[in-house]
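Re-run requested by the PI after the first attempt was lost when the workstation crashed. Everything re-entered from the original request form. Ligand of interest: glutamic acid.
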Amino acid sequence: MSAKVIGRFAPTPSGFLHPGNLLCAILAYLSVRARGGQCLLRIEDLDKARCPRTLVTQCLSDLDFLGFRWDGPILYQSERTAQYERAFRHLQDLGQVYPCFCSRAQLHVSQAPNRGDTLYIYPGTCRFLAPAEVEARMLLKAPAYRLRVPDQSITVTDRIQGSFTTNLAENPGDFIVRRADHVYAYHLAVVVDDAESGVTEVVRGCDILSATPCQIFLQQLLGLPTPEYAHIPLLVDANGTRLAKRSQAISLSSLSRRFSREEIIGTLAFAAGLIPEVQPCTLEALIPHFDLTRVPRTDLRLPTRFLTDSSGS
Ligand code: GLU
């Protein structure tokens, strides 16, 4: 008998859920449910200032409205600092992290990599500081901590996107694992959480594909298993513009004033190629015929009626 499939949906509630997040939730959920597995919910509220309680509550009620039923307790990253601390200490013991005093540090923080559009490669400025220099700087400024990455290629074998290889030294270079204000970085938290929850498959937006080798490298250092990955294409409008950029206008809260839950699910299922035409349907109805390999690799176009916000919000 094959081992149990455990998947998860891991939103960052720094804004309202939008159709791109929902599609991700739907595909992650169906992928495990179709194989009798468990689907967990993890709230990635590492950065409490960016993820206020009101947005967390809204996110939970939006998911509930759509009919998601999660297995196990909801995990909140904001409550798991001790676990991240342990992993960080392990990396320190391996001699794999170093303090970084660069002000750019604040840019590459606990957020998922999809928040910025341009690739930033850390030039290694603080990598070779002498111990005395580090000590002197410590007195003036709390450092962030970066992970020393090797000049080595890492390949992700993705169930939707195929094979993706990157050299960590070139993308993204030494990356931050702990911010100067002690907030742990997204990459570190995600690998610790996935491993502890026994996650066997990760279904998420393909804007994170290029950063996945960073997570695989962390898993290798920390002795954690690598789950299966499936990075789903992004939702775009008729002009090919990413929907995340217009998230406010088409948040689930605004969509649910205009469409029923079945219409929302049916429209997204159609956009992902799961059903042949737009028709109302439930998550349950999509489970029996679900096949992740049918999801296309390229951008998915959302029907225009979803994009015209007539609610005035
Ligand atoms: N929290 C990330 C986001 O909302 C997703 C992280 C993941 O699924 O690994 O974009």
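Saved to the shared folder this time. Residues 19-33 form the longest helix (15 residues).
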